[in-house]
Amino acid sequence: MSHAMTDDRCAFAAAWPLPVLLCLLSLCLTALLPPEAAARPRSLEELAAISGKLVDTGTEYGSIPSLYRPRYDRIQDANLSSSDDDIMFVVIFPDGPRIYPQRIMVWHQVVNEVIDDVAYTVTYCPISGTLMAYNAYLDGLNLIFDIEGRLYDGNSVLMDRNSGSLWLQETGMAFEGPLLGRGLPLLPVFWTTWGSAKRVYPDAPVLARPAGNRPYGRDPYGSYHHSNSYYTNDRLIYPVQRVDRRFPRKTPMLCLEYEGYLLGIDVAYVKKRGAVNFFAGPHALLAAHDPKLDVIRVFNRRVWTEPFLFIPSYGKLMDLATRSIWDPGTGIALEGNMKGASMPQYYGGYSMWFSWYSINPETLVVPGEGDVPENLLSPAPPGQSAPQEAPDATR
User: Fold this and answer.
1) What is the phi/psi pair of residue 336, to 5°?
2) Peptide bond preceding 367: is omega within 30 degrees of 0, i.e. cis?
3) Which backbone phi and psi does 175 adopt, to 5 degrees?
4) Residues sharing a CB contact under 8 Å with residue 91, sequence separation 6 or more, in sequence order
5) I need a labelling partner for 74 at 20 to 30 A (CA). Which of 54, 345, 359, 377 fits?
6) Secondary structure letter of residue 224 according to DSSP
7) Is residue 334 a contact partner of residue 242, using CB atoms and an 8 Å limit?
8) Looking at the predicted structure, is the pLDDT value of residue 27 above 60?
9) CB within 8 A of 85, min separation 6: which ones?
């Protein structure tokens, strides 16, 4: 650490009055409290009890055909049949990103991949808006998944062809069958648009339209872009065990688990704010809008030993300790005393609030009590007015 950096940090700490520092300390202590409710299964018995709570949808096993090692198009070819605002799912595999159009995924819901002899599965549940991808290699088996047909709290039930075990799509955990209690590692996924995906990943393969006569240009549930479709109204088709009214039921949430804490982050809220500093237990985290891919990313904002505070700055991030500029897509400092430093990034999946909460009522939320208050995030020292930032079209 350079002397200049140390001086900047000391000057920043000394600038804040005692009440502000006490407020920050209070936030930390409040966030240390563990989550209260606990509905996610904590034992094999609780996990197996899910079988008795499944909801029959009338959908038979096999009627929603999963895809296995499908065909892909180049970006240039996919662009001929895609609009910039079309919803796309990006999955980061060990060999690089692949792009999955939502208009195809809604008709198949599961894509089984094999890369370098290792199986992966990409899953999308339109009922709950849940997007998850998993490493499906387990105990020497390359698991192949299908939609089983029933739901749990609005979330799809999967069945693997290898053992016939049943899995919950949202958690990647088997709750019935020979693989009861086994879980699958997550892959990074991003919910974005065609315009953003093709710009950030110009060489990524794009899931091609499968053979057959399904109307891939029509979504049986409506549209994410239109009001009063299933995706945007407040009506539920199937019952859930718990309802929480802090957010509209179908609010799109970025959902993840961090050090034993379950997190639900309101995607639209963070996009509007640009950056939200918050705590999960003792952990100082940052949810930031990455304008290039138009997604929310989550970082541990403890840089070396200190929890930094960040504000948006012309499509990037600025920390208030050193005024360094950071890339919201990578968590790497681009300019200033911190240049070259980085924040670890953490990944999860996506779900509508009603389904994620019903399965995980112990979830900590953003916005919520762990958020650092706005009045502590002024880029100007106390007693001075912050300069007005010019509008940024990229945010």
Assistant:
1) 100, -175
2) yes
3) -115, -5
4) 97, 98, 100, 120, 122, 133, 187, 188, 189
5) 345
6) T
7) no
8) no
9) 193, 194, 195, 225
Q: What is the pLDDT of residue 6?
A: 34
Give the distance from CA 104 to its chain's centroid: 20
Q: Is 227 within 8 Å of 123 (Cβ atoms)? A: no
Cβ-based neighbours of 208, under 8 Å, separated by 6 or more: 70, 71, 72, 73, 78
What one-letter code names the amino acid at 5? M
Strands 333-335 and 189-193: unpaired
Q: 101 pLDDT exceeds 80?
A: yes
Cα–Cα nearest to 115, from 130, 98, 95: 95
Terminal-to-terminal C-alpha distance of the chain: 32
Question: Which positions ≥6 away from 58 have C-beta within 8 Å?
Answer: none
Q: Are strands 110-115 and 67-68 parallel, antiparallel or unpaired?
A: parallel
Residue with tokens 């690089």: 96
Q: Which residue is it, tokens 């794009």?
A: 206
* 153/134 Cα distance (integer angstroms): 20
What does the angle CA 12 – CA 365 – CA 168 come to, to the nearest 5 degrees? 135
Looking up tokens 């998944």 gives 145
Beta bridge partners of 152: 155
One-letter amino acid identity for 55? V
In angstroms, the CA 232 to CA 225 distance is 8
Indicate the SS3 state at residue 174.
strand
Q: Give the position of tokens 């995607």.
A: 267
Whether residue 153 contacts residue 359, with contact meaning beta carbons closer than 8 Å, is answered with yes
pLDDT for 37 beyond 50: no
Q: What is the DSSP letter of 109?
A: -
Q: What share of the chain is helix, strand, coil (3-state, %, to 5)?
A: 20, 35, 45
- In one-letter notation, the amino acid at residue 11 is A
CB 61 within 8 A of CB 146: yes
In the chain the domains, ranked by start, together with CATH numbers, are 3-33+242-376 (2.102.10), 52-207 (no CATH)
C-beta neighbour count of 151 within 10 angstroms: 25
Q: What is the largest CA-CA distance in the chain?
A: 68
Q: What are the CA-CA distances from residue 196 to residues 42, 86, 104, 299, 392 (Å)?
A: 39, 10, 18, 21, 17
DSSP 371: B
Residue count of the chain: 395
Q: Whose CA is closest to 280, among 372, 352, 342, 357? A: 372
